[in-house]
């Protein structure tokens, strides 16, 4: 989007008054969104956003300025604004930019911008019909399709120059079921670093049917019991637990600020033996996959916890510099309007060796969680509360009836230390992770795991699990 000479001039202007590091992030983002409500296409929206942000780091001070006008003169002006954070005398700066080539191939089969909008609306309509046809008790369906093509140019004062194209496609379905005086909802989503091929082989219809099934299952569910009990979290539940109760606490900025329960514990046993937690930006077609992070550093596979021992953290450039470590490719931002911060990509608990069915079969009385809902986590101490979107009682090793209204309350590090069975499967979920007022696409995963005891909240207080 800009030639090397202009980028070099902008970086030189950013460092003219001093500073230890400067970078520029230039973005052009094309988006499409199609939504369906009340059995009709409600909204079709397309748009293009473009702009650039310049950052200057001087010691512990970070200055960031951005503009949606991408011209040489405007970027020099923005760089001058950012440079004023460094209070030293002016100097001449020259930066030699060298292009960095990607080592990860995203392999996009069908570019979204090559697909007529009529084909995208047809996918949404088909998903809507599939959800409604799944059960007569489905009364309302909302389907949202979205795709984004993001072209970025990133250059920094280390001489790195990256040009990259990111493509993501997503479809989400929310189904509402009604019966016997109740209203219940079911949600399911599909997404990845893929093009329009994501919608092939009836994948979207399958997502819609799953959302409908979950809503109907909740109608037939009984009140969840309350108390301490064994909980099995199925791989299909996705990695909400590891993302919220563990992942954020392993982001280096929270660790360095003392806002993480994992601060000062590198090299210590923080989870049960057999528990390995990984953040990987290179997994094919996953929603959080990137060739380069938003600072221009290559992504990779970062082992955070290995066999229960804390090995490291997720770094961006600034936090890595403070710890005299290498960036891990976790510097991410929502757009050119935001400065990068350490963020997760694809975070998961690695699979173990147990048969998932055997994990369930080992429980006499307990709860099987098949889908997690929303929740809250305190990263300072690791305490959490999560809703269970779909759960079932386990009795004598067999899956019994569905329950609704269940919550899980506990402490993330304690849960990781308690896990005593790890399945050989791995189930993913996708989402947009919020932090510092900005969102980033991520995916999370876990195998089937057994937690011997955790507090389950529910509305059935009979005392029988």
Description of the molecule:
The strands form 4 sheets. Strands 1, 2, 3, 4, 5, 6 and 7 form a 7-stranded mixed beta sheet that branches. Strands 12-11-10-15-22-21 form a 6-stranded mixed beta sheet, covered by helices on one side. With 465 residues, the protein is of the alpha+beta class. It contains 9 helices and 23 strands. A hairpin with a 5-residue loop joins strand 16 (365-377) and strand 17. It is globular, with a radius of gyration of 24 Å. The chain has helices spanning 4-14, 72-83, 117-134, 203-220, 240-247, 252-256, 317-323, 356-361, 412-418, and strands at residues 21-37, 40-58, 61-67, 98-99, 138-156, 160-179, 182-192, 222-223, 227-233, 277-280, 301-306, 309-310, 331-332, 341-342, 346-349, 365-377, 383-395, 398-404, 407-411, 421-422, 427-435, 438-446, 449-457. The mean pLDDT is 93. 20% of the residues lie in helices and 41% in strands.
Summarize the structure.
The model has no long low-confidence stretch (mean pLDDT 93). With 465 residues, this protein is an alpha+beta fold. It is built from 9 helices and 23 strands.
């Amino acid at each position: 989007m800009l030639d090397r000479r202009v980028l070099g001039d902008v970086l030189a202007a950013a460092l003219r008054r001093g500073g230890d590091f400067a970078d520029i992030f230039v973005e052009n983002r094309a988006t499409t969104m199609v939504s369906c409500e009340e059995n009709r296409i409600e909204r079709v929206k397309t748009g293009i956003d473009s702009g650039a942000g310049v950052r200057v780091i001087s010691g512990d001070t970070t200055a960031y300025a951005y503009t949606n006008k991408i011209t040489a003169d405007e970027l020099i002006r923005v760089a001058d604004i950012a440079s004023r954070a460094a209070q030293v005398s002016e100097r001449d700066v020259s930066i030699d930019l060298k292009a960095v080539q990607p080592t990860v191939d995203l392999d996009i089969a069908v570019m979204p911008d090559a697909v007529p909008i009529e084909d995208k609306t047809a996918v949404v309509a088909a998903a809507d019909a599939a959800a409604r046809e799944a059960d007569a008790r489905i009364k309302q369906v909302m389907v949202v399709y979205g795709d984004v093509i993001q072209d970025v140019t990133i250059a920094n004062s280390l001489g790195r120059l990256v040009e990259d194209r990111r493509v993501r496609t997503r479809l989400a379905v929310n189904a509402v079921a009604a019966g016997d005086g109740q209203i219940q909802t079911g949600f399911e989503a599909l997404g990845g670093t893929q093009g329009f091929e994501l919608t092939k082989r009836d994948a979207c219809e399958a997502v819609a049917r799953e959302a409908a099934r979950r809503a109907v299952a909740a109608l037939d569910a009984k009140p969840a019991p309350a108390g301490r009990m064994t909980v099995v979290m199925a791989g299909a539940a996705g990695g909400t637990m590891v993302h919220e109760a563990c992942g954020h606490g392993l982001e280096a900025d929270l660790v360095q600020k003392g806002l993480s329960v994992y601060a000062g514990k590198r090299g210590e046993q923080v989870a049960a033996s057999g528990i390995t937690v990984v953040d990987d930006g290179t997994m094919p077609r996953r929603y959080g996959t990137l060739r380069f992070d938003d600072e221009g550093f290559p992504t990779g596979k970062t082992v955070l916890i290995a066999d229960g021992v804390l090995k490291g953290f997720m770094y961006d450039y600034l936090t890595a510099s403070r710890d005299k470590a290498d960036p891990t490719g976790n510097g991410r931002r929502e757009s050119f309007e935001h400065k990068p911060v350490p963020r997760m990509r694809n975070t998961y608990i690695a699979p173990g060796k147990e048969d998932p069915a055997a994990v369930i079969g080992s429980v006499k009385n307990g709860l099987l969680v098949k889908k997690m809902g929303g929740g809250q986590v305190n990263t300072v101490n690791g305490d959490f509360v999560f809703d269970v979107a779909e759960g079932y009682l386990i009795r004598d090793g067999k899956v019994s009836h569905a329950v609704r209204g269940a919550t899980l309350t506990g402490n993330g590090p304690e849960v990781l230390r308690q896990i005593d069975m790890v399945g050989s499967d791995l189930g993913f979920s996708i989402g947009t992770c919020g932090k510092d007022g900005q969102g980033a696409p991520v995916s999370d995963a876990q195998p089937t795991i057994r937690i011997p005891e955790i507090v389950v909240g529910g509305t059935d207080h009979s005392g029988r699990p």
